[in-house]
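ligand=FE2/S2 (inorganic) cluster
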Amino acid sequence: MSDTRMLDHGSTPLRYARGWHCLGLAADFSDGKPHAIHGFGTKLVVWADSSGELNVLDGFCRHMGGDLTQGEVKGDEVACPFHDWQWGGDGRCKQIPYARRVPMRARTKRYETAVVNGQLMIWNDPEGSAADRDILPPELPGVLTDEYTPWSWHVKEINGSHCRELIDNVADMAHFYYVHFAFPTSFRNIFEGHTATQFMESKGRPDKSEGGYSGEDSTLRSEATYYGPAYMINWLEVDYKGFVTEVILINCHIPTGPDSFTLQYAISVKKPEGIDDKTVDYIADAYTKSFGDGFLQDVAIWENKVAVQNPLLCEEDGPVYQLRRWYEQFYVDVADVRPEMTDRFEFEVDTTRANEYWHAEVAENLAKRAAEDPAAPAEV
Amino acid sequence: MASFEPRDPATLEEQRRYLRDGLVDVACDACAARVGVRKNSEQHTSIQWTLQSVALCKVFAARDQTPGRRDVHRSCPNMMASVDAAVRDGDVSVGAVDGY
Ligand code: FES
Ligand SMILES: [Fe+2]
């Protein structure tokens, strides 16, 4: 027998996670037109009825499979472009204008909805349970008022990766140095119930300037919690040269296929006192750009890596296995959720040895750079 | 229904090693809660609670229980003190096995 370690790629689940998923900003669906969202292996249709209520159905008409997202909103219903069958938000066909009556069985798949922080959420459950509104993400006080900049919303399609790759980041201390160019000085995880939290303090690497975590002048205090399988709120305190900004970053996704998902992120910045709106917008744009770049740094890794069911860990790594055990609760029937998947688990990562090594490496990088370009600052 | 399934039976062994090995039972000095503790190094701590022990913890009980609460990352100071004491007394040994 050889001692060579093999990667176990495992198999991807045949189902999509149970829980709340965010489709986007509610306002973006409220123009009286049907909207298409790819998700859960199909296409969904989203529209606002005459009272402004948002509805979400499977996008394909149960008559002959017409694409409802290309139809029209008529009254409260979405009408299919193929033969004008008109579907209500409750999933029932309300009218077939050319027919004497609507077949009783004319019911399609509907998703229960909620609007939280101006964002449209839908409940997905392969078992078809009623939406659990007690586990919606929390309302964020002050957001969507004059105290914060409006959400800037961004969408990125990811192909070739299961969305668990994105979740793995929660427990991944060391990638913040290598991928996001920061020194994570303090790093903790807490998994409990349907939430998974990462607590991190980091300092930017002075030898790099790409992405939201890097740069010698920036220090960051970050609390990020997943509420269910697909929606994270990240409270960030960014200290740039002593100027502290509170940033709220939403990181959410919709699985689209067995190994693809749509990543969405949004940023809202607490307006610092005594600063004019133009400067505030400038700051918000800068953070949006830099945290957006941060996601792209991850994407480049995901698009090229392979799935690993048996990661090999060292002492400085975070609790990847416990995180995945937590995440698995969303992929099994409710009756099969084991206590250990939801029991509280706390983990503090030892960052001492890693930071010693990383500081030495960065000092070396800076020295090399100074030697190559005598005009650059030598020492930090 | 199938979730993330390993292909190699050895992966199950790995899961057990990372999830369960080396957890030592520690009782809180201030309440009846007990947790599983593992220390790979001075700074590292891994604490496995159960639903029962969380329910017994006085500090958690006194905290805001609303779903959106933001103090989730804070541990119970009584339990942390008890863990430190268990480490000092040698009940919980400090050190990793084969790098973890
Ligand atoms: S396919 Fe939709 S009305 Fe016929
Ligand atoms: Fe990342």
